[in-house]
Amino acid sequence: MATNRNDVSPEEQNPPWLGFAKLLFIVILTLTAFLLTRSMVRHHFFSGGQQNRHDTTEP
């Protein structure tokens, strides 16, 4: 006998806070990646390290 997919018991449905938790996790993950990328750019990670070395004496 075939069952109707619309007849789902309440125990099988996701709780309403689960959607909020997923959204909050995605927002925190995105914010963390943004801050990490911003920090890496500020510290010249992608261009090979420290850019301005103030050496006053040359050998």
Detailed description of the structure:
- With 59 residues, this protein is mainly α.
- It is built from 1 helix and no strands.
- The termini are far apart.
SSE arrangement:
Layout: H1 16-42
- What string gives the helices and strands in order? H
Question: What about the largest sheet?
Answer: none
Distance between the termini: 89 Å
- In total, the number of strands is 0
Oligomer: single chain
Shape: rod-shaped
What is the count of helical runs? 1
Concise summary:
The protein has one helix at residues 16-42. It is mostly helical.
Keywords:
0% strand, rod-shaped, mainly alpha, 46% helix, 59 residues
